[in-house]
Write a structure and sequence with these properties.
By secondary structure, the chain is mainly α. The two termini are about 30 Å apart. It is globular, with a radius of gyration of 22 Å.
């Protein structure tokens, strides 16, 4: 009997490893898809034409991924984790293949639209599966692996894209998703045993429509203000007030969405979740640190090139400490959460982000490069600690029936943080340089002043995130029955 128990433990361990492998595969595919396309776009535009539509190839994927996530989250909680995961991955795989067969830019944008919808299911489904399969003591380790995937995608995406374009064909940046997606579907179907029963639910059509329209308009308005995603030209065609008008319409529609959520018996975003302090604080802190993250990834290389005078290779290397620090922080988090609790780990991570951000705000052109690299490393460790522990808190603070929507909220706020962060920090740069932050001919003193202002914003946002996290209740994140 003892041998049977040992065999059962081994089988369960193998089952969990297979589930982790499936989630890592799907998370890496959706994360890397954001960056891998960038390297191939010149070749794609050359072959398919429609160079003026390039920005929509990027924007439509991020937009539909963000908008569809809460809807998928609701389906995860009603129709089950396995159904949602398999459906989302299947849509992602099928649309990836269709992207590879595109014959013009309009067709590619349409299939990227579908690809984003499929990708939107993966975060809430993975979030719920981890919470269902792994006990509280193991979640931090597993979640650390998943968050690390997103952290390093920005580094390896362009490299993989370059290899595929140079040695195979640009279509393979999409075709490569197909075999890995099929493997992931098989692993989930074979090894994940559903622990919740499907239940009938009244479909919140009004909520789905108003949320999708409101968030879409809001993100488009932000991208138009920013101008870096290429929506600026489209907005200019509608008039100089287009971003403001879209923003005002988005606010009105989202207000209607909140009203409908308060009235519907089965809302796609139950407002009572926001009465849970851990939920509100977790997604608020996630929003703030992702605002800092997008700024770090965008503006540190510019500082290295335009202020310090190094080449593009050195500029790229300055981000490697973040990609090293994040997995290190996530690994420490997995060991520290069971011993010290999530609150202390989150605060420790945020303190490191504050220290690194303050260091960035203090640098000048005379500052040694190793100090810049050290600041980036400290922030990377802080991101790994805080982002992982915040996700664990969110997973453990809601019941099983709300884990899908909680995961979608986490995904949505990360996307919103990056989008709003890019727009706001870009506006700060513009205030000093009077030009696009890529800054071809901007005088070095203006560039230094603009980037210094951006780094000061890092410090302010990091302090705000730390102050917000201090409101976490001093009680275990794992609540009875969760």
């Amino acid at each position: 009997m003892k041998g049977d128990n040992a065999s059962m433990d081994l089988r369960l361990d193998r089952t969990k490893r297979n589930i982790i492998a499936a989630l890592l595969i799907t998370s890496s595919l959706t994360a890397i898809e954001v960056t891998i396309v960038g390297v191939a776009m010149p070749k794609i535009a050359e072959r398919l034409g429609g160079f003026h539509l390039i920005s929509w190839v990027f924007a439509i994927y991020l937009l539909t991924m963000a908008v569809s996530a809460p809807i998928w989250g609701k389906l995860t909680d009603t129709l089950g984790r396995k159904f949602t995961a398999v459906a989302g991955i299947s849509i992602f795989v099928a649309s990836s293949a269709l992207c590879g067969f595109s014959v013009n830019m309009e067709m590619l944008i349409l299939f990227r639209f579908l690809q984003g919808i499929g990708a939107g299911a993966i975060q809430p489904a993975s979030f719920a599966i981890v919470a269902d399969v792994f006990p509280f003591e193991q979640r931090a380790k597993v979640q650390g692996l998943l968050t690390t995937v997103w952290a390093v995608a920005g580094l390896f995406g362009p490299l993989l894209g370059g290899v595929l374009v140079d040695y195979l064909h640009w279509r393979w940046i999409f075709f490569v998703n197909v075999p890995f997606g099929i493997i992931s579907i098989w692993l989930i179907g074979r090894h994940f045993a559903e622990t919740m029963n499907r239940r009938k639910a009244r479909v919140d059509y009004g909520g789905a429509i108003t949320f999708s329209l409101g968030i879409s308009l809001l993100l488009l308005a932000l991208l138009s203000f920013e101008g870096e995603e290429g929506t600026g030209a489209w907005a200019e065609a509608l008039g100089g007030f287009a971003p403001a008008l879209m923003g005002a319409a988005a606010v009105a529609i989202l207000a209607l969405f909140l009203y409908l959520q308060s009235r519907h018996p089965e809302p796609i975003m139950p407002l009572r979740l926001f009465r849970i302090p851990e939920v509100t604080i977790s997604i608020g802190a996630a929003f703030l640190i992702n605002t800092i993250l997008i700024g770090l990834q965008a503006y540190v290389p510019i500082w290295t090139q335009k202020v310090l005078g190094f080449g593009a290779t050195a500029a790229g290397l300055t981000l490697i400490p973040q990609c090293v620090g994040w997995p290190l922080g996530a690994n420490i988090c997995g060991r520290a959460v069971p011993a010290f609790g999530t609150r202390k780990v989150i605060l420790t991570g945020l303190v490191l982000i504050v220290i690194g951000s303050a260091g960035m705000a203090a640098i000048t052109r005379e500052t040694a490069l190793w100090i810049l690299v050290l600041n980036v490393l400290v922030m990377g460790i802080g991101f790994g600690l805080a982002a992982t522990a915040l996700t664990v808190v969110l997973q453990s603070s809601v019941g099983k029936e709300f884990r899908g929507i909680a995961g979608s909220l986490n995904s949505l706020m990360r996307t919103m943080g990056k989008t709003i962060g890019a727009a706001v920090l870009g506006a700060v740069m513009f205030r000093y340089t009077g030009a696009d932050p890529s800054g071809g001919s901007i005088p070095a003193p203006l560039m230094e002043a603009g980037l210094h202002a951006v780094f000061v914003c890092f410090a302010i946002l990091s302090v705000l995130s730390l102050l917000l996290a201090l409101w976490f209740p001093k009680r275990p994140a794992e609540q009875p029955g969760h």
